[in-house]
Design a protein that fits this description.
This protein is α+β, with helices and mostly antiparallel strands and 330 residues long. The chain has helices at residues 2-31, 38-49, 53-60, 74-82, 212-236; strands spanning 62-63, 84-89, 93-96, 99-108, 111-125, 129-134, 137-138, 141-146, 151-154, 157-160, 165-169, 174-181, 185-194, 204-206, 209-210, 252-253, 259-264, 270-273, 276-279, 282-293, 300-317, 322-327. Helix 2 packs antiparallel against helix 3. Mean pLDDT is 89; it is low at 19-33.
């Protein structure tokens, strides 16, 4: 009977030892998975990819610096995280004081990148399971500038650009693309990748240019002005009309024979200058045809001359119209 009791006790002891071992293994598995320091980082990346800025900010325990918050939620945030691919988590590295560093490697648009997150053990649940949280920090800031514009788009979202510049608080990692796609002015897209809160992101500088639509509109107004000017000069039969072109001669030109025409219209170039847009000097050619009398011999000859001309203009643009004012020096 004593041998039976020994065998029963040994069985219970073995079962207890196996249960303890299994518990230790289970605790280690939980602490290395859902209770690991990598888990808050996984949840944070998931929040970024879903555009859940409030959740991401809460997980990161980050403060928002004084800046524009347009990139911290919704479509703008989803777009920033959309190109993150192939995320690989590294082993947590001890940093002392119950803190660890969790590294991740990933790619954005084919570029291999590395980001490190600092976390701290905040508490223990159920006596065994660790809980981890991000060490509080401040979000990085991305600076954006645009030439001669008070607006732009950043990650597809229209943003205000007072005096052509603004600063945006951003999450990391992520990619941010600025562009300008207006009716009259545009700038090619430019991108910046933010991979860390400690490394300043390269500023995004938009180099604005006049669109073909604006150049066509200004060219049409220049042509309209010159054609009207030539027609008025013909009507008034003037050699020196109120136009950029004129003809000087010692001969007498027979009234009713003067015919002005534009043989080469100016090529329009629109450039930024002094915080506004200006049209470069406009150069062209005009032809005058007429009959003239030599005052010394009385001979009548045909006048057919081409004159170079140049003039400047003032360009005024609003959301609905383009106004061109010729500036002529008489």
């Amino acid at each position: 009977m004593s041998q039976a009791l020994v065998r029963i006790a040994a069985g219970w002891l073995l079962g207890l030892m196996l249960a303890v071992a299994a518990s230790i293994v289970a605790v280690n598995l939980v602490n290395n998975s859902i209770a690991s320091p990598q888990q808050p980082v996984r949840e944070y990346l998931d929040a970024l990819q879903k555009g859940e800025g409030e959740r991401a900010l809460g997980l990161l325990h980050a403060s928002v610096p004084q800046s524009n918050a347009a990139m911290l939620d919704g479509t703008a945030l989803q777009t920033a995280a959309a190109r993150i691919a192939g995320v690989k988590f590294g082993d947590a590295e001890e940093r002392g004081g119950n803190q660890v560093m969790v590294p991740i490697d990933y790619a954005i648009d084919g570029s291999q990148l590395h980001t490190e997150f600092l976390l701290e053990r905040s508490s223990t649940e159920w006596l065994f399971f660790h809980t981890w949280s991000f060490v509080p920090s401040a979000l990085p800031v991305l600076d954006v500038t645009v030439v001669n514009s008070n607006e732009a788009t950043l990650n597809g979202i229209p943003v205000n650009m007072p005096n052509g510049r603004n600063s945006f608080a951003v999450f990391y990692p992520g990619e941010y693309e600025a562009a300008l796609n207006g009716q009259y002015f545009s700038a090619p897209p430019t991108r910046a990748t933010v991979s860390s809160r400690d490394v300043p992101a390269a500023p995004l500088n938009l180099l604005t240019e006049a669109t073909p639509a604006l150049k066509d509109a200004v060219s049409a107004k220049v042509k309209e002005f010159l054609d009207s000017c030539a027609a008025e000069a013909d009507k008034e039969q003037k050699l020196q009309p109120d136009c950029p072109f004129y003809h000087a001669t010692n001969n007498r030109v027979i009234d009713g024979t003067i015919d002005w025409s534009i043989t080469e219209y100016p090529s329009v170039r629109i450039e930024p200058f002094g915080g506004r847009w200006v049209v470069a000097p406009l150069d062209g050619k005009a032809r005058i045809k007429a009959r003239q009398v030599d005052l010394f011999t009385g001979a009548v000859t045909e006048l057919n001359a081409v004159h170079d001309f140049s003039f400047t203009t003032r360009l005024d643009i609003d959301a609905a119209s383009v106004k061109l004012t010729p500036l002529l020096n008489y």
